[in-house]
Amino acid sequence: MKTETINLASPSPGTQRSLTLYRFGNADARPKVYIQAGLHADEWPGLLVIQHLIPLLRDCQAHGRITGEIIVVPYANPVGMGQNVFGYTAGRFDLAGTGNFNRNFGDLYPPVKEAVANKLGHDEGENQRLVRDALKEAVSRLPAESEASQLKKALLSLSIDADYIFDLHCDDHSSAHIYAVEQQTAKAKDLCQSLGFDYLFTEGLDGIVAFDGTHLQPWYRLAQEFPDLPVPMPALAVTVEYRGQYDINDELAEADALNLFNYLAEQKVLFSATPESETVKTRYKLPLVSPLGAVDTVLAQSTGLLIYKHGLNTMIQEGETFAEIILLDQPPPSNRQPVIARTQGVLMAMTHRKLVKPGDLIAKIAGQSPLEHRQAGNLLQL
Ligand SMILES: [Zn+2]
Asked: pLDDT tens digit string along 332-350?
């Protein structure tokens, strides 16, 4: 295991933050895997999963069983982690004003297209090499004026040519779920079955993308531009949502790390401890797959105290009152406003911030029918 440090720009005199990363396996070996946690710096379960994964990888390396390359970033956002506001870590948005830490990684497609347009041919391996080199070059030229843009550039410089990209996040109070692109649905279902995740949300690659999609979008657009040439995108780039913000304990994280480790073994990135264990694979049930346009993200319509009428993973019927908002500035008993489901599906994410106002995201209901109000604009919620 090699440890490296990347220093970020000083945000104020006398201070400087840095990224730590660990390298396993052989540099430039394939498959290359990149794993990070805490890009949204207030989402901590993935941080603990990585702490349990590191000893597994270190032991694997000590026995010469890593065939690919693995880069692990144990905390991907020291900038956000330091944004402590009166006792709360405000880790989703940059207080310096650059926006959501999981958006705006730069459009890598124009420089990549310019670099490879006249060089792509019918050799798939050669095309992959050309595009990966162009992606690395494009990342090296990304602007990095602010601490946050330096951070994003540093992360991409480690990950942009990987075959597998795992970005570990979590929701408020939620079941484990994965966001993947629809082109990788089969592979993402397989990952869910390895990790024991019950929900898979799929989305397109047009428009604004998050960290995971940043790795796929240039390939997707190249394939559209050059339909007769082989330019296969990386094997898998996903956002892995390790349940809710408070779901942090050693038992969960140890099991999650082992499942992720075993998935890497299945993908031939490494060999697990014994030849016998190679044949004993834990396969969980198939996940419920929902296009993101069929996942209702329910917003509060009024100001008050939110009360749920059901727990996580309850099947909700369209038209059902599954929650109420108590209007505190009016007397009971007529001050409860119903929150009515607009689709049939499973209540799989809730908020733990119960004093709500109009526009607050209060629930996710994973359905199957495309929702009219979810078809337009940017669907990204992670
Ligand atoms: Zn997140």
From this structure: 999 999 999 999 999 999 9
Q: What's the CA-to-centroid distance between 226 and ligand 1, angstroms?
A: 33
Quote the domain boundaries for residue 366. Answer: 293-374
Residue 282 phi/psi, 5-degree rounding, is: -80, 120
* Region of residue 279 (left: phi > 0; alpha: psi -120 to 50; beta: else): alpha
Domain assignment present for residue 380? The answer is: no
pLDDT at residue 44 in the model? 98
Is the same domain home to 341 and 364? yes
128 Cα: distance to centroid of ligand 1 (angstroms)? 30
Distance 171 CA to ligand 1 centre (A): 7
Give me the pLDDT at residue 51, please. Answer: 98
d(CA 371, ligand 1 centre) in Å: 23
Residue scoring higher pLDDT (279 or 179): 179
| Residues 270, 246 share a domain | yes
Q: How far is the CA of 259 from the centre of ligand 1 (A)?
A: 21
Residue 166, phi-psi category: left (phi > 0), alpha (psi -120 to 50), beta (remainder): beta
Q: Residues 11-55: pLDDT tens digits?
A: 999 999 999 999 999 998 999 999 999 999 999 999 999 999 999
Q: Which residues contact 249 (CB under 8 A, 6 or more apart)?
A: 48
Separation of 37 CA from ligand 1 center, angstroms?
9
Residue with tokens 């990585």: 50
Q: Which of 251, 286, 321 marks a domain boundary?
A: 286
Cα of 49 vs centre of ligand 1, distance in Å, is 15
Q: How far is the CA of 150 from the centre of ligand 1 (A)?
A: 19
